[in-house]
Structures
1.
Amino acid sequence: MSSNWRPATKLVHGGTLRSQYGETSEAIYLTQGFVYDSAEAAEARFKGETDGFIYARYGSPTNDMFEKRMCMLEGAEDARATASGMAAVTAAIMCQLKAGDHVIGARALFGSCRWVIETLAPRYGIEFTLVDGRDMTNWEQAIRPNTKVMFLESPTNPTLEVVDIAGVAKLCNQIGAKLVVDNVFATPLFQKPLELGAHVVVYSATKHIDGQGRCLGGVVLSSKEWIDENLHDYFRHSGPAMSPFNAWTLLKGIETLPLRVRQQTENAARVADFLAEHPKIGKVIYPGRADHPQADLIARQMTGGSTLVAFEMKGGKEAAFALQNALEIVRISNNLGDAKSLITHPATTTHKNLTDEARAELGISVGTVRLSCGIEDGTDLIEDFDQALKRAGV
Ligand SMILES: *Cc1c(COP(=O)(O)O)cnc(C)c1O
């Protein structure tokens, strides 16, 4: 039974839908619409009496394969593939809120997610509270009679803090709210938010799921009931649908997800240990290390470390820039989850729009650097950091 397959098998075979030609690799169905054998057949399709596709904004065969494969991996009943991770986040939040509702978010959020909650939602009369998500009492105290949604990311970008997903899910259940988890940093392999009690999971498939730097994509996963009641109509009529070409690219990416994430995580753990011993580096934050401030919670809710490492250059911005410029293999880019190792300086790139105060609250200093490990040989990465730290004479 396919539901008993282990993850690596699901990721290669799950959801495959073969045409009459029996192609080995998944086919790309680049079609906007579908033709019906008769007017009666069209009527029956629109009434929902027969299965089948109607229009590519609603769903199409290649996207369907991607959604089914993601459902198998996540243990979700249903999913919708979206054009980007932000389309997934925006749809998952906005489809279940209306004027007068209240949303609570952990303040350590990917920049655009934070914009949706603190700038976009209030324009439509939705109230919000951002809290330090590490402390459960903050969530509890932020609850209002009109709280409908809680939103978090764990581990967070870029400082790799973790939030107790089961704890927040329990609070949601007590008040009838829904918990949406952005699971990008953990990957679907190392953390299962639905099993921990979350109601909705979202991904930027742009990251580890593609994993080879090619296309944007996203996905929202939940129960069939939640999707039918909240997302189904919103998705059809507001139109964040993924391109079938991207769905195909992501289906190919997902086949090798466990191989890549395993290698990236092994590399990240090795580089983190190397950096932690280096005299030019202050603090290293890595969810797989015993010295992570929340190591106990990580052991409870995650089954792997991370493909990312955050660290502090003692010499501040100048040292952080010198290090990045001296690296030869690791490339400077704000993306993550790629086969190529990528490094970024959050204070001047991904988090430059935050106030100094907001950055300080998130633990982002001028010396903070975020590394996304690729699938290169780990020894080469360590040698690259070794030579770059020597050359970065600060
Ligand atoms: C990249 C990212 C997003 C947004 O995804 P896009 O595909 O770039 O739209 C959302 N959340 C997290 C945690 C991300 O890393």
2.
Amino acid sequence: MIPLFDMAAELAPIRAEVDAAIRRVLDSGVFVGGPEVAAFETELAAFAGARHAVGTSSGTDALLAILMALDVGPGDEVVTTPFTFFATAGAIARLGARPVFAEVDDATLALDPAAALAACTPRTKAILPVHLFGHPAALPVTEIPIVEDAAQSLGAGPVRGLAAAISMFPTKNLGALGDAGAVLTDDPALADRIALLRNHGARPKYHHVAIGGNFRLDALQAAVLRAKLPHLPAWTRARRAHADHYRALFAAARLPAELRLPPDHPAHVYHQFVIRAPRRDELRAHLAAAGIATEVYYPEPLHRAPCFGALGLRVGSLPVAERASAEVLALPIHPALAEAARTEIVRQIARFYER
Ligand SMILES: *Cc1c(COP(=O)(O)O)cnc(C)c1O
């Protein structure tokens, strides 16, 4: 079997460092917040080139906290992409605001800056692009605050908008041993507001100056992430090298012209390597039968999700995103993926199209 992710293989060579981090937390008796979280925030901010990092309980809660800090609520609109994980739009809708889905770029599958600007109205409180699959998205040039969903793109360059939400869900490029996230920003007032909101708006303790939530990062996750963060550049280099190898293998194989590879970018961190494949579902079944795991990110563009049915966006309203949903296929690209596995994956894809 060639798995899509291999967390055990990633952990094995650094197991002693991770075990030591866990032991440190157990011995400290501090399990929420505290010095491990503060140290991780400092190290993460330095790594990401941001002035501030605020740890959160997940990437979802990082998005939610940023939008809460911007006072996004009922009557407001946030322009975003329909071609993303649910949390992007879910964070908007949970605050009573309207997610306004705009079309994506056909090459990168990220929110098209021109379409995003065209979708703005006087009610638009923010624009929320996603650096999908680790590819840095082009951002619109506007006075409207830009909140970046960087859940898949840690290491792909500095924060360019007002703030960025990152996820450290176990399968992300920097994965915790459970849920974890962070907000990155250069704005000290915004960082302070998010730190307030993540702890029920209490300052000092039991004096609530804002309505926040429990968006706190666990000390155990912070300590494990501190052990893993120094390895992220090497893991990213491995992902990029795998992408280069895939490109060489695909170039040498006989494949239909409609099979498209993802566009490259100097800062791409290849959270996923997503091809556009004719007869995608048949190809996926062929690869599964050959022991190769793949995934479809995302089979349903969010404007077609039943929970957003009230927005009234019919089939055909965002055709680029809809076509992508029918064609995308993510191939394994985790750092420990062996050369023989990459060769076998492309060989099996070529075999499928030969028939
Ligand atoms: C993973 C992810 C999130 C949510 O992060 P969690 O840590 O799982 O809450 C949000 N947006 C995108 C694009 C993601 O891939």
3.
Amino acid sequence: MSQLALLGGTPVIANEPPSYSSMGEAEKAAVGKVIDSGCLSGFFGSPGPEFLGGPRVREFEAAWAARFGVKHAVSVNSNTSGLIAAMGAIGLSPGDEVIVPPWTMSATAVSPLIYGGIPVFADIEDETFCIDPEKVAAQITPKTRAIVAVNLFGHPARLRELRDLADRHGIYLIEDNAQAPLGSEEGVATGKIGHIGIASLNYHKHIHTGEGGVCVTDDDDLAGRIQLIRNHGENLVGHDGISDAVNMVGFNFRMTELSAAVGLVQLADVERHVSIRERLAETLSDGTRDLEGWTVPKVRTGCRHNYYIWLVKFDAKAIGVSRELFSKALAAEGFPHYLAYVPPLYRLPLFQRRVAIGREGWPFTLTDRRYDDGLCPVTERLHENEAICFEPCAYDVDDALAEKMVEAIRKVHAHRRDLNALAETG
Ligand SMILES: *Cc1c(COP(=O)(O)O)cnc(C)c1O
């Protein structure tokens, strides 16, 4: 193989890979019909048939519920909105604790704060990067109201185990299923094992509607409360004779007819959009698995991994080059990637300064939970030393380009000692 591109050689991948687009003619036609109808949203925030949205929204929800075999699918305008609605629906109250992982999109961890809930971080597993049930169990107190499991990077958390743990303690399991639309554990779809599961349909996910989300649940009461929180529930409480008015300050989390129309088409083709990403990730794993100091993603027995992110654990000692330098060389070869995912979320100023809502530090005044460094050592180590991430969802990669990606990684690994001269001379 030729010299490293970082040292003046020719890059393996000449051009930036094109972006993946899941949009096609069917989506265009579906949107066109909504435009022609003149009505881009069918919602009214008051009692009456329009309280539950327009025809496409309802059709989309019915299709989603049928596709995943759930009793209720409630569409929202984002996964973030869905998380907030879920926190409201379970009756979360100021001072209640919600156990969350520190390695996830920030919305997962901050959503309890909207209701005065206290996020409590439990560390992740070293192999699948999902929240560790043992660490969760150690954090449960009489104040715990819910556990949020994220099926991170497309791999299911230990959902059955977490659900059993939640049931034993009489608390809720909520699944943030933004990254694993077709994940499964022992044949059961992700999103369905928790009391509520929440999908994301933002642009970066496997399928999307621009912005959007869907909450699924088999519980009639929870579904009804999510619908109320989604759409100005305060206006319905008196009219519908709802006795439990807890958290019935509503929002506007409504999905538009445009998004629902796109969502219907995307949903019909979700298997294809997910399996393309899975195949790319598997090609990268199979092509680089043998490399020393380079640990490709593992899939727990009985699970389906959707590979929202393909994360490699880099062992600088075994490889003999720093992660940063290796990454520079990889980038020079044209392999798009980044180091780390997000910082452990308790490092956000919000937690460090213990101020979320208002000026008085509320709701942190309700707890003596601390958010110091060292809280979740597995997450900190992955973030600081080990993670190299590639996003199969982001790029349109054919088999030839996938092979080039493998070649780029193998080239840098094979020539890694050449990088040490660079490190020494600075
Ligand atoms: C994308 C994502 C979210 C947020 O989704 P939105 O639809 O953008 O609100 C939340 N959690 C996880 C794990 C995500 O990946």
